Amino acid sequence: MKEMAAAAKTIAEMFDGKRAYDADGFKAAAETLKARTGPALIAEFPEGTLGAPSAARMEIGQARPEFEALARHIGRLADALAVKAGQAPAAITGDMRMGAMLPMDGGSLLGKRPGAVEADPAKLPAEHLLHLVLQDCSSCHSKFRRKQQ
């Protein structure tokens, strides 16, 4: 989880101007997200092994289909982000930016409005994909992560 958080922070800081943009760094961070989401994320929390000392709540086991669907959704977004990062130019371009006209469609898989249509991740700008990944991470943490003392 710490690798995922560091990778997401790296990309976010590049888009926010808090870190110098580096196409190779963007690609490496996106590849980390891709490698740690989807099936790899599901494997981190096998059935019957949840609870202390993990920060995972027991609700993962009780809502397994929901957790796995969210992990797969984050994986599809991370896959699309990695493709975009693999083609990243030497500088951030306008078509990589989220833009004012792109709707966030009501939230992540857990918080989306009923009937909301989700755009094809491959057609979304890299920055928008990152924001959707972060939304899904927040949704997953709020439902399935236990606060550490």
TrEMBL record:
<dbReference type="GO" id="GO:0005506">
    <property type="term" value="F:iron ion binding"/>
</dbReference>
<protein>
    <submittedName>
        <fullName>Cytochrome c</fullName>
    </submittedName>
</protein>
<dbReference type="InterPro" id="IPR002321">
    <property type="entry name" value="Cyt_c_II"/>
</dbReference>
<dbReference type="InterPro" id="IPR010980">
    <property type="entry name" value="Cyt_c/b562"/>
</dbReference>
<dbReference type="GO" id="GO:0020037">
    <property type="term" value="F:heme binding"/>
</dbReference>
<dbReference type="GO" id="GO:0022900">
    <property type="term" value="P:electron transport chain"/>
</dbReference>
<dbReference type="Pfam" id="PF01322">
    <property type="entry name" value="Cytochrom_C_2"/>
</dbReference>
<dbReference type="GO" id="GO:0009055">
    <property type="term" value="F:electron transfer activity"/>
</dbReference>
